[in-house]
């Protein structure tokens, strides 16, 4: 059996509801905490603090989960994270755990909690992609039920 892969993610917006797919673009590495050699690799706003502060040079599912949390925020807001900030400020804020994207007040509490868990400074506290998938599915089902409930019974 082939070893599991660290994943890339695709969020496909089709129809009324987003379709979340976790997949591989051929850029992933074997999921056994692969070493990232040759310096830091990634795109700053989406990089987990442990990669930026040097406490880990290993690619793991939890590193990808951090990035996925940032992508969820992008879906919610339609904005680029930290768009007007200098690279040094972004690195410093992420590493010191004082910088995360600002959540709009209209944010659903379950969506907010999921994003914040994905952004946890402790990689062990971040959910797995299996858990994320299950939670997104549950949120989608709850939304579908809410949309199909007559207004008088809400």
Automatic annotation (TrEMBL):
An example Gene Ontology CC term for this record: cytoplasm
Keyword annotations: Signal
InterPro entries the record matches: Kinase-like_dom_sf, Prot_kinase_dom, Ser-Thr/Tyr_kinase_cat_dom, Ser_Thr_protein_kinase
Domain Protein kinase: 1-141
Keyword Cell cycle: no
Protein name: Protein kinase domain-containing protein
Pfam families: PK_Tyr_Ser-Thr
UniProt-listed PROSITE patterns: PROTEIN_KINASE_DOM
Xref: PANTHER family: PROTEIN KINASE DOMAIN-CONTAINING PROTEIN, SERINE-THREONINE PROTEIN KINASE
Molecular function as annotated in GO: ATP binding; protein kinase activity
Keyword Transmembrane in record: no
Residues making up the signal peptide according to the UniProt record: 1-19
Gene Ontology biological process: signal transduction
